[in-house]
Amino acid sequence: MSAETHDPLEGFDTTIHAPNRLRICALLDTAGEAEFGLVQKQLALSASVLSKHATVLMDAGYVEQRKAVRDTRQRVWLRLTRRGRDAYQGHLAALREIVGPSNPAPSS
């Protein structure tokens, strides 16, 4: 591959690409920070499935959690790290590059 050739897979991130992890990143990118229960409800995931995917994202350095007591119960908030936000944005750009323009020219 020459130096001038652009690899459309550059930025594609298999960690983020799994559907539930992609949805988690999309929600956190928009929300900034969200309580675990809210993420669970918004994405219609069980606590165990969300926990499993959040752990994969945390292990990659893409998501961090903050724990605090609220209403006498311990709560967990999730948010994208700078690295996670960059990886998510890079993944979206790679997907756009792979699928091409969203409004292809009509065929004659």
Tell me the radius of gyration: 17 Å
Largest sheet: 3 strands, antiparallel
The rounded distance between the terminal residues' Cα atoms is: 34 Å
Largest sheet: spatial strand order: 1-3-2
Overall geometry: elongated
The share of residues in helices is 40-55%
Strand count: 3
Mean residue pLDDT: 89
Strand content: 15-25%
Order of helices and strands, N to C? Answer: HHEHHEEH
- Which class do the helix and strand fractions yield? alpha+beta
Low-confidence stretches: none
- Continuous helix count: 5
Describe it for me?
- There is one protein chain.
- With 108 residues, the chain is α+β, with helices and mostly antiparallel strands.
- The chain is 52% helix and 18% strand.
- It is built from 5 helices and 3 strands.
- It has helices at residues 14-17, 19-31, 36-43, 47-59, 82-99; strands spanning 33-35, 63-70, 73-80.
- The protein has a 3-stranded antiparallel beta sheet with strand order 1-3-2.
- The chain is elongated.
- The model has no long low-confidence stretch (mean pLDDT 89).
List keywords for this structure.
alpha+beta; 3-stranded antiparallel β-sheet; 5 helices; 108 residues
Task: Put the structure in a nutshell.
The chain has helices at about 15, 20-30, 35-45, 45-60, 80-100, and strands at about 35, 65-70, 75-80.
Summarize the SSE layout with pairings.
Elements: H1 14-17, H2 19-31, E1 33-35, H3 36-43, H4 47-59, E2 63-70, E3 73-80, H5 82-99
Antiparallel strand pairs: 1-3, 2-3
